[in-house]
Amino acid sequence: MTDSVRERFAAAAREERPDLAELCLLIGAEADPALDGPVADLAQIELDRLAGLIPYGPTTALEWAQALGRVLGAGHGFHGTAADYGLLSSSLLQEVLRRRRGLPILLSVVWIEVARRAGAKVHGVGLPGHFVVALGDVEADGGEFGADPAPYVLVDPFDGGRVLSGPDAEHLMSGPGSGAQPGSGPGRLPGAPVPADTLDIVRRVLNNIRAWAAPRPERLAVQLWTLDLTLLLPRHPAKLRYERAQVLVQMGDFLGGAAEMEEYAEVIGSFDPETAAAIRSKARAARALLN
Description:
Elements: H1 3-13, H2 20-31, H3 38-52, H4 61-75, H5 93-99, H6 104-118, E1 122-127, E2 130-136, E3 152-156, E4 162-163, H7 166-173, E5 195-196, H8 198-213, H9 220-232, H10 239-250, H11 254-268, H12 273-288
Antiparallel strand pairs: 1-2, 1-5, 2-3, 3-4
C-alpha cells in the first residue's frame, strides 16, 4: 500500500495500450506489499512459461480454445469453485497463478494473457454476472456458432476452459441486464459479444474486491484502497468520490470525509441541487460526530 504502487498503477493505466497483467499485478501489490517486486516478476515469468507450452499450429478459434484448454484447464488445473468467491486471493493475479483458482474474471485474465503471448486473437467478455473469454474474430459477420470454422468461440475459464455451445452462450448473454435480443435461430448468438477493454476489466476487478469487502466493517481499508485505485483510472464515475467520503467517515476520519462530501456536493450542485443539499447535510452531521 505504498505511494510507489499507486504511482505505477496510475502511469500504467494511462499508457496508450495499458498492460492488463501489469495492472492486475499492481492491484495485488496494493492488497499485499509482499506480492510486489520479485513475486510480481515471477508471475510475469509464469505467464510467459504457460504461453510457451501452447503447441505451435492452432489456426481456427476452436483449435486455439482446445489448445489453451489442454494446457491451462486439463494440464494445470486452472478453474474456480463457489468457495473462491469468499476469498480476496481469488481476485489477486499473483495468488490466482499460484493457487490456480480464482474468480471468473481473474481466471479469464490468465487465459487472455497466455493466449495473447502465444499469438491468439483473444478478448475478455463481460456477461451478466459472469466473465468469459472470446477466441477469434468477434467482429465477424453473423456470429454463428455452427459456422465451419466458427469465426470465434467463447470459453469459460471458471469451468476449466469449457467451450460454450450456442445455447450456453445465448443463456449467459441474454441474462438479466444484458440488453441482448433473442437469437434468430439455433446456434446463433443474441448478438456478437462485446469485448471488454483493458481498463474495463481492471475496473471490474476492483469493483469485485470492493463488493467482497463491503459487508464487513473490518474490511473498510480494503474498500478505501479499491476506491483510490479506481479513481486513478482515466475514466470513473464521479459518485465514487462520494462513496470514498462515506468510507472515510465510517473509518473515523470525520473531517476528511466531510470535506470530500462538500467537494462532491459542489460538483453536482449545478445540475442536482436537491442531492447536493442532502450531501452537505451529511457532511455537517459527520463533523458533529467530533463533538
